[in-house]
Amino acid sequence: MAQVTDKIREEVREIVYDFFAEECEIDVNEISxxxxxxxxxxxxxxxxxxxxxxxxxxYGQEIDLKTIGKYSIKxxxxxxxxxxxxxxxxxxxxxxxxxxxx
Length: 102
What we know:
Layout: H1 6-23, H2 45-58, H3 65-74, H4 80-93
């Protein structure tokens, strides 16, 4: 788990935008926080897993995919902004993310 700073927030946003621009073969300037990952960008759920792996390596985390799955059921992600928010929660809370609703 890590303290989420403005620097981390900006790094996460940049990585997510660059990742989707490359994977979806679109210009990064065509992406916004309101972009729908599936309908606007043509993304898929495997991209979530790839991003989680990128961030867990970058921030030295161990996180159980089942935990993320349970959290995602309660908090579905459809837009880039929602994905960034979820990723920041994962960075900050790790496996304890599931306890945020309890």
